[in-house]
């Protein structure tokens, strides 16, 4: 499939989908606490989607049975909500999306519950910062692998972390997963040129140990092979017609964080 390039009108609809995802994240952050079940978080997300007039792009995707993915500790991505209890000290990763008028948004975050181990907090901080470094590197005129290079270089500079090889970011638009696939590692200066109208979901997934992973018997949940804890952050961003980026799934469009990295966001979607 060819890479889908979006018009400003289409990006405007994707921003609406992105805001629904941002609102889901906000709602979950407000309620998540020790003693909750993971399927209680799924109910919260479903309510936000319904209230917004959007639809879920996760529910029934290749048979996935829930509105969000909830992954805990050594579960890195694609955990299925259920009766599992969230405990003090857990690292919980939430991944979700929404569809508005046929256009998709997709984003993820990890959060520490209660009293968090300092190494777990650093894991999450490094993963989140690497995502923003990747977005900043994916500027107009850059090449696709500049994103993965930036993610890998920053992650490796912060300590010994495993970057998952089998999973990465992706194009997004009228489908949740489109070309191109975006690696979270590799050499800079290769792949398609990043141009206005390109929309990418950038999502590093790292562990405190090995990069090796395995999929559980439910055929969804991805865990670290060595039992080390993982983190997962994701945002959907676009290069707007003015050549500047805009983070569609961030409430402020990525303004504050990208400014700290010397990047000005687009005014096309404000």
From TrEMBL:
The keyword Glycoprotein does not apply. It holds the Pfam family Peptidase_M24. The keyword Translocase does not apply. GO terms for biological process: proteolysis. GO terms for cellular component: cytosol. PROSITE patterns: MAP_1. Keywords: Aminopeptidase, Hydrolase, Metal-binding, Protease. GO terms for molecular function: metal ion binding; metalloaminopeptidase activity. Residues 13-239 form the Peptidase M24 domain. InterPro entries: Creatinase/aminopeptidase-like, Pept_M24, Pept_M24_MAP, Pept_M24A_MAP1. NCBIfam families: met_pdase_I. This is Unannotated protein. It comes from freshwater metagenome.
